[in-house]
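User: Hi! I have a protein structure encoded as tokens and I'd like to know what sequence might fold into it. I'm fairly new to this, so please keep things simple.
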């Protein structure tokens, strides 16, 4: 039997709420049931939104919930050379290209097009910078900030058909739905898709337990795993916790932070047991798949 390694990978951009607690508990429980490891990875690659005080708070919240993690905490901000190495590999194979577009220029181009194709994250990148000449690319790279985008059509044709295991089901990967995704941002040397793919493989995460909101991104992750010769983990996307308003939990929808529950005298052990057994606080529900 393969060794089970799961992880919880929060972005330290705010306080954890009940939805995070639910996800962390499921990943923790999965590892413990299989006598495996449960890792904590802090996804702090966004320099403007990540805050150290949120990291401290996340650790405090997890320990209040009784979730101990194995090994050292992994910080994405300390792993930038690994991401650069992967980008260099993809660049050697002509699978990525520099993109100089701004959000506004992309939006204008999309608006001007009669039928701009849309993917799970909104309108697809129209491919403007994919069509630049090598000469123009090198001139502009010296002078302008740029992101790096995956040439999706090339990547998909090199990779051929791919799939992943999600729970008991085999899912056909359709990364082309996302178009030319960004793998390194203008304001951060890596994007979520690339960092998460590399980090899960590097830490030997064989079972990814995470919310259904990240199901669609798996199409891209599966392709990147293949392109970078990384193993395909077994995914276990779980349904999201919904608040009394029927919407997925989010700070902006008023979901209470774990810290507030703690301060209001909620019993952590009881809360963890209740969440895992489906005995949710009044008004809360689990989304139907
Ligand atoms: N950092 C991501 C988030 O907070 C989770 C990444 C993942 O589980 O793949 O939504």
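Assistant: Happy to help. Inverse folding works backwards from shape to sequence: for each of the 289 positions I chose a residue that suits the local structure. Here it is:
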């Amino acid at each position: 039997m393969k060794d089970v390694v799961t992880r919880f990978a929060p972005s330290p951009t705010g306080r954890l709420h009940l939805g995070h607690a639910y996800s962390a508990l499921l990943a923790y429980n999965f590892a413990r049931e299989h006598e495996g490891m449960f890792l904590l990875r802090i996804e702090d690659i966004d320099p403007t939104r990540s805050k150290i005080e949120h990291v401290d708070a996340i650790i405090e919240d997890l320990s209040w919930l009784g979730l101990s993690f194995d090994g050292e905490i992994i910080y994405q901000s300390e792993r930038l050379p690994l991401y650069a190495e992967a980008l260099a590999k993809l660049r050697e194979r002509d699978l990525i290209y520099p993109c100089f577009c701004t959000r506004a220029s992309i939006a204008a181009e999309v608006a001007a097009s009669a039928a701009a194709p849309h993917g799970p994250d909104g309108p697809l990148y129209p491919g403007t910078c994919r069509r630049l000449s090598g000469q123009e690319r090198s001139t502009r790279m010296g002078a302008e900030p740029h992101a790096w985008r995956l040439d999706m059509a090339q990547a998909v044709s090199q990779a051929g058909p791919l799939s992943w295991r999600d729970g008991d089901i085999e899912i056909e990967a359709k990364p082309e739905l996302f178009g030319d995704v960004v793998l390194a941002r203008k304001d951060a040397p890596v994007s979520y898709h690339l960092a998460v793919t590399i980090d899960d493989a590097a830490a030997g995460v064989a079972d990814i337990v995470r919310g259904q909101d990240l199901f669609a991104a798996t199409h891209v992750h599966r392709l990147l795993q293949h392109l970078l010769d990384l193993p395909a983990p077994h995914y276990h996307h779980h349904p999201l916790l919904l608040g009394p308003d029927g919407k997925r939990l989010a700070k902006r929808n008023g979901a209470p932070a774990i810290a507030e529950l703690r301060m209001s005298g909620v019993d952590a052990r009881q809360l963890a047991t209740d969440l895992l057994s489906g005995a949710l606080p009044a008004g809360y529900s689990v989304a139907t798949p």
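A useful reference point when you look it over: The domain at 5-78+239-286 is CATH 3.40.50.620 (Rossmann fold). Feel free to ask if any position seems puzzling.
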